[in-house]
Structure formats: C-alpha cells, structure tokens
Amino acid sequence: MKRFISTLFVLMVVFSLAHAQNAAPSYAVLSLIGDQLSTVIYTGQTGTQMPPTKKLVEPINSTAFEDIAVVAAGDAITATQPVAVKNLLSTKNPNLYKLQDKLVDSGNEAARESIRAMLKETPADYLIVLTKYRGDAKIDLPLQNKTTGSGKLEGIGFYLDPLKKARALQDGRGKGLVASYAYVKALLIDAKTLQVVRDQVSTRNDVTINLTTSFDTWDVTTPEQKNEALQKVVRAAADDSVRKLLQPG
Predict the structure, then answer these.
(1) Could you tell me the residue ranges of all domains in the chain?
(2) Which residue, 193, 203, 154, 184, is CA-closest to 70?
(3) pLDDT tens readout for residues 183-238
(4) How many helices (H) and strands (E) are present in the chain, helices listed first?
(5) What sign results for the dihedral spanned by CA atoms 237, 243, 246, 249?
C-alpha cells in the first residue's frame, strides 16, 4: 500500500510539472529600435521659425543594438515570469522598420504578413516588439533634481547641447552637454490575432561627464565610450519597458 501511495505521489508530481510546463506562456521577442543612430543638437534658435534643434541620422548596418535589446528583454521576461518560454528573434526586414509605428494595423498587410511568417517559424503565445518611441527631450542632470532638453527624441542616439557648460553638472568641467538616450515602446501582441494587448514606454538617458577643463565633451569622448554609453541606455530601456509590460494588472 505504501509503495502504491509513493508511486501515485510521484505520478502526481510529474503530472503537475508537465501541466505547469504546458501552461507556461511563450514569448517571441523582436527589436526594431537599432537600425539608425540619431544625433540631436541644440542650436539655441529661439524666437524664430527655425527649430531649436537639428537632427542628424546615420544608418546602423549591424544588429548589434537589436541583439542587446532583445537579450535585455529576454532577461526581463525571466525575471518577471521565470517559467515562461522565450525565443529571441532578429530581422532586417525593411517593411517592419519602416512601418513599425503601425505594426499590426489592419491596413498594414505587408508588416502583418512578415510577422506571421516569423511566428510560423517560431511559434509563440505572444510577440513582444520593441519599437521606437518619440517624445520630448528630457535629459536627467546628474546630482541635480532637474532635467534639460529641447525638441523631440526618438529611438536611440545622442543629445548634444554645445551651449551648456558641463561644469554645471558639478562633477564635470568641460564644454558642452552630451547624453546618450534610448526612447523605446514595448508592444505585447497576441500571436494568434496580432492584436496589441498592451504597450509600455520607457525613456532612458545618461550624461557623459567630462573632467577636462577646456575641450568639448563630444570631441574628447572616444568611440568606445560612446558605444558603451549607448549600450547602457538601450539595455536599461528594453529591460524597464518589458518588466512594466508583463506586470500583472
């Protein structure tokens, strides 16, 4: 009898584990934020018809930042839903990048077909897509409870204010304000219906501190430092937006 009860208990545990695994949600994760780098420069043009900022855009010909974003999103899924299954995707499909602000709209059949094809290869209950968010430039100043910025920021890049003295940041002395930024919107999409269940926005920025006394901050910051700063905010925005997206309620 004891042996029968023990066997029954083991079977119940195995059944429960199998049921839990079957019930675990699965997510496919895709990022569409890293195809171009924007540099937004404050010009100081006020009281005229000219905008206060100018924007320079460069293409990014690798998936480096997309890879960073989807890994961070995957870690956020694991942190919020440890039993969830996740599949990290990558694409260079121009339709998805071009139409990402209307990704699953009924009239956007090209993008919808691309998504269906991806999900056919990687079945999932939900698709999480990181897209570019456009919002007001709000740069957090280190050690100060205030922000600065003018114009709009979108996606990933750098915000420059050559007129602001970095010494105003207390720890810096050089000329000009430089901040990396990532403005991200995470979409939770039902894989069967391609309907957006919910979305969450996250904006992250990080000011570069320049300890030199006379050189422009942008000029003395190496490419490696700029890349590291950009990776930092991309990782933070992807993680934050997905954690918020998967919170209950």
Answers:
(1) 25-246
(2) 184
(3) 999 999 999 999 999 999 999 999 887 766 666 888 888 999 999 999 999 999 99
(4) 6, 11
(5) negative
